[in-house]
């Protein structure tokens, strides 16, 4: 009986839960990414690398693809369909193979000819330049040159019309030290660190440009055709590398960002699914059918790097390990991670936790902790950054009160975004954040407000004028945060496409929308501009007499203004008026209250991991996404069917699609 009930619950979850990938539509296609293929019957002692797949497994994939009516297409067919020449067949897919292993010629190419399946083969140029009797540097290993295809094989496959040759860079398929602590990150998107310091932006761009140009020249010289596709090593790219690849003649870029590709989408970035030996046929069905699923909710912890930092490096390492273990065991999705230093707790940045052009660096810490959280704890990391609240000292232009001509007492000290010099500083800081660190999103701090006595507009005190000015200032600040986002995306790994944004908003703006004129903030405007509107749902900070009732009303009012999927509640885990932690049971009850009202994305601030406050054992049942069952996918059967990579870099944070995506994790 319990088994039947559990089965019914899973089916119900499938009916009501969203999927990560939308259902397949006409004129779309899915790209699969393979690496090395082995035949263990012939080479039983061969060392296997990540993403290595057995020949028998690949044949099962190919048979399953045919049986279920999927139709592999060439990239030229995709381009012809985009140009309106010939539409794509239904259930179109594209096969791609990275790195240029000899096994592609020996094992895959015969299968492509047998099945008449086209494919894209991505080559690392420098590996092909190695002499026959020499070894190829492959991550931390050395492999014989014979492990990779040679030019006669490449030319033969290209001439067949089944295989398109793409660039996988000339010599950028490796990891660079990305910080003083030694974290290794993809060379294409990383400012390399050495004892002499960090690589400059100019040197970085010159290195990447030279690499792409060399790859394009080599492939043109050896095959007679210049490549038009850049397949990013480890799936790592940014807006700058996209532009450099276009300049080198490769306007199309294959990533490891998962998702279906649609012909009507702008841009030339192609999403792919990374497969490995453990990718089941059931998972393949989910991928190709557009039915992949991931938790539709965000559960987050807001972390102060000020709590992690310690002048003693050994203690700081202990702090990092303690934080990582805690976050990994929580079963959450996201960490909002402080990227600035605020020793006096006034909310104004006096230093930063990453290299930059304008402010002191308290410690080069953000990139290290963010990368470890992403790769070891498996969470998304948002860089928590002020919009304007940076203390640059005297001789800088700050937001001033029109009554005094000076910064308002009791408010954040904020650089003026309409002063050209201050604006340039703020944009530079965000650009440096993207250049030196790796993160998934931006959380804009609550400092982005302007009172009715602040701003660049003439002061009028009529109610109508104040309301109009509040709306104009709201738009001004939103537009500026979008400029900051674009600055961060210029060098950020993943570029602008996947860069998520969240912005804090005071609870007063939820319950009293007319307060916009005093803050230049608006729930409705935020809902249109950002991926998430993060309401500071902190009852004791707002002096609520009955916190439970206050939160329930706030949830109802918030959901009336912002869609649930774009709303985040940040609860307080500390009562700053009494300087005491919120009892764990009370915080857990708050989470239950807001969930009962329909708020599914939530977290808390601050996290005192030193004192285990709050206690994950108490919160986990109502907080962890791992307590939510994954949905049962109903089988999809077509009408016709009814009768390698360097593991130390972890594919730039993109794991292979392996195993059963329906697996329900146990606590």
Automatic annotation (TrEMBL):
NCBIfam families with a match to the protein in the record: deacetyl_PgaB (TIGR03938)
Swiss-Prot/TrEMBL GO biological process terms: carbohydrate metabolic process; cell adhesion involved in biofilm formation
A molecular-function term among this protein's GO annotations: hydrolase activity, acting on carbon-nitrogen (but not peptide) bonds
Protein name: Poly-beta-1,6-N-acetyl-D-glucosamine N-deacetylase PgaB
The keyword Flavoprotein appears for this protein: no
Keywords: Signal
Domain NodB homology: residue ranges: 91-335
Primary gene name: pgaB
Source organism: Aeromonas sp. 19NY04SH05-1
Superkingdom to which the source organism belongs: Bacteria
InterPro entries to which the protein is assigned, alphabetical: Glyco_hydro/deAcase_b/a-brl, NODB_dom, PGA_deacetylase_PgaB, PGA_deacetylase_PgaB_C, Polysacch_Deacetylase
